[in-house]
Automatic annotation (TrEMBL), chains A, B:
<dbReference type="InterPro" id="IPR027417">
    <property type="entry name" value="P-loop_NTPase"/>
</dbReference>
<protein>
    <submittedName>
        <fullName>Molybdopterin-guanine dinucleotide biosynthesis protein MobB</fullName>
    </submittedName>
</protein>
<dbReference type="InterPro" id="IPR004435">
    <property type="entry name" value="MobB_dom"/>
</dbReference>
<feature type="domain" description="Molybdopterin-guanine dinucleotide biosynthesis protein B (MobB)">
    <location>
        <begin position="9"/>
        <end position="142"/>
    </location>
</feature>
<dbReference type="InterPro" id="IPR052539">
    <property type="entry name" value="MGD_biosynthesis_adapter"/>
</dbReference>
<dbReference type="Pfam" id="PF03205">
    <property type="entry name" value="MobB"/>
</dbReference>
Length: 174, 174
């Protein structure tokens, strides 16, 4: 498998309720509107399993029968589900995405990973992550007085809609 | 991408209500119980789209925002969904499955494809598919008088539970 993907990856990280989900959707919409084939990936940060995709469907039955991986394809859609016990790295996930030739992958979470990141900082404490986490290219803060001495561009949540292209540009490296 | 997968593929085909789904689950259970890493794929044979994986979830929002591919990973599970308009061949799907090193892939549908097949024949009319479809290795019939002159092993649905290993063996080719 390749160790280097052919598309830029941008991670959106931050603590719970820091606005990661909204930011993901803003970036997805902006990039898609620019004509980029945009993919997303979210880390489900709970130790419990995901809710099964289709309780009661054939795929669900296949899992119950013992399949470790099930898929259903048709009508222009494809759904794949990997059952419990999967151990997969972000690198492996990216290799899977590579099959579908995205122009951009937006990732929510996985903050210990190495890709360019946007940090969502609701509080001053959140802001401290900028010193702990690798490869933060931009910070989106909720408080006016957060524009500090750090060497990373800081944006304010209220006006972020005007800076989405800049955020993507700051993170873009292939 | 490789043109030849490293694992056997078995297709289960037949008309509606011929018992494909039950047969899929029997084969998945049998193979899994044998210790095989068993994957499944079902062709959704309707022209309408699949029901969205998680209406109301973040993944669903990402699709609404324009992402062509969304994923959520955590707690040992992974769910991937490809939005509307995807055109993907069985060959491409198999290449994706290859990333996860299955020992066996059971496929429901895609009867025009080339892989070894089990034909489910509820009626004598169904049985005629054996002359139209490539690479049928076994027929599972519902009527006693179906054991005909064809050159393919025929099994009866009532006793199929005792012949699952044989069915897999007949279809196995990598």
């Amino acid at each position: 498998m390749p160790d280097k993907q052919s598309f830029p990856i941008i991670q959106v990280i931050g603590y719970k309720n820091s606005g990661k989900t909204t930011m993901m959707n803003r970036l997805i919409r902006y990039a898609s509107d620019q004509g980029l084939r945009t993919a997303s990936l979210k880390h489900h940060g709970h130790s419990d399993s995901l809710e099964p995709m289709h309780s009661g469907t054939d795929s669900f039955q296949h899992h119950e029968s013992g399949a470790f991986l099930t898929g259903v394809e048709g009508g222009g859609s494809l759904q794949l589900e990997f059952g419990k016990g999967l151990e997969v790295s972000l690198r492996q996930l990216i290799n899977i995405y590579e099959n579908f030739s995205p122009n951009l992958l937006l990732v929510e979470g996985y903050k210990r990973e190495v890709y360019p990141k946007i940090l969502m900082a609701r509080t001053n404490e959140d802001f401290e992550l900028v010193h702990e986490i690798a490869n933060i290219r931009a910070v989106v803060c909720w408080e006016k007085d957060m524009e500090s001495s750090i060497d990373v561009p800081v944006f304010h949540i209220e006006t972020i809609e005007d800076h989405l292209g800049e955020l993507i540009y700051l993170c873009k490296e292939v």
